[in-house]
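Why do we care about 3D structure at all? Because function follows from shape, and shape follows, mostly, from sequence. That is the central idea of this module. The next example makes it concrete: a single protein chain, its amino acid sequence, and then its structure expressed as C-alpha cells.
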Amino acid sequence: MSLCAFGLAGPWAARRGFDTVVQTVSGITLRQAECVPGARPGPNFYPVSAIDYCTGYLMAFGAMMALLRKTREGGSWHVRLSLAQTGHWLRQLGRIDGVHCRDPGFDDVRDRLRETQSGFGLLTAVHHAAEMSETPPHWSRPSVPLGTHAPAWRG
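And the structure:
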C-alpha cells in the first residue's frame, strides 16, 4: 500500500504534504471561505481533516479489497492513494448550502444514541457498534474539560 500527498507522477510527485497543505493548494480553502456565512475573509480550512480521514478510510477499504482479490484470484495487490486525489474527489461531490438545509435532527438515529453525564453536562453520542452480553462497553471516566485532573501517574 502506498500513500503520498500529490501522486506518483508529475511535477509535485516528490513533494510532501498533509491535509491542510492539500486543502490550500487545491483551492478548497478559498471555496470554504465562500460558502461559510460570516467567515473571516481569506482562506478557511474545513473544520475537520476531511482529506486525511477520507484517505484513511479509502486505505482501509483498499486493503480489504486487495485481500479479497488475493483470496479469489491469487497474487499480490498494491493499493495507491494520494491526498490530492482524495481532495479532488471530495470537491467533485459538490456542496450543500448549509444555510437553507433543514436540520436533520436525531429522529432517524435515536435508537443508536446514548446519553451520559460528563464534566460538560449531559452528552449525547453514538453508542458502541458492537455490544456483547458478557463484556458490555463502558467508559471508566466521562469526558471532562481540560485541566479537570492534575497530571499524575496512576499507581
